[in-house]
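Example (one chain per record):
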Amino acid sequence: MGAGKRGVLTAAVTVVCAVTVLAVPGTAFAAPTPPPDPGTTASVTVVTSDVELEAVRKKLDKLYRAAAEATDEYNAAEEKARQQTAQVMRLAKKIVEGREKLADLKDRAGAAAAAQYRGGGLPPEARLVLSDDPQDFLDGAGRVRQEQHAAKGLLGEMTRTQRDLEEYAEDAREQMRKLEAGRKVKAAAQKRVERQIEAAEKLEAELEQEEKERLARLERQAAARAQATWLSSGVLDELTSKATAQGREAVAYATAQIGKPYQWGAEGPNTFDCSGLTSQAWLAAGKTIPRTSQMQWQQLKRVDVEDMRPGDLIIYWADASHVGMYVGDGVMVHAPRPGRTVTLAGAGSMPILGVVRPDPAAE
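Predicted structure:
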């Protein structure tokens, strides 16, 4: 690792290393290189210790978690934008229909006015009074009442239609304002996602291939320790719940995606983010669930970890920024993060916030 590269890596992990180097016993460091003979060119190989790589791992975890949280915000804004766009389209359709109805009512009102004009401009009541035939007077009285009732109904319908049109137009304007605000939220979230991922990728790019391999090993070891601790708590000892028919379909879909790349904001079919995978898996099973991990946590029925069954969703971290699907035997399937693919992992390999059930009514 060159001096410039060494400086970038050291700057990224200095604070964490200052704590970790004192806390981790038995860490092996590279032996110091003897000074070169006078008159020769120095050739020094600097080896990054596991302590430093562990600090890098924690820094990467922090960056990717921040990216996941921003991704959830982006996905929520995207989902809301879809709903608001659909609402604007429904309102636009109502406005078109209302205008057509109002035009028809105006035509009918115009026809009535024309008929009155053809009658000499006199209102029906006046023509009736001037009639010489008593029978015509009696017959005409009924017609006048009907015409008056129809005219009032026509005017009332025109007024209601006009009022509806004004309300639809105002609702559409409000939805458009919300849509524009949502676009700004989504754009800001997108920038945060890209910024966090760019920082993480830059940090990883500073590592040599051997260091990357050791870093991957440290990630596996950390996940294995967390899973072992989770299992040692006896959480699965009483776990006997079986998957429902829909749960089996959801699990089948999710596991069929194993090996496909993570892509933030993606819902398949070729790439997924964590909640894109779980929401599409349940959609494939015939159940629509919220799009983001945070909304899944907020809106779906919560169950005890000890009662979870295959198909249930495990929500991770205190901010509910990650989700996986339980498949049984202490294992879940998830889309981990950028640079990784959909994979199986220990259900307890990350801090569990809780478990939610998309199909609580199913037996």
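Caption: Residues 1-47 have pLDDT under 50 and may be disordered.
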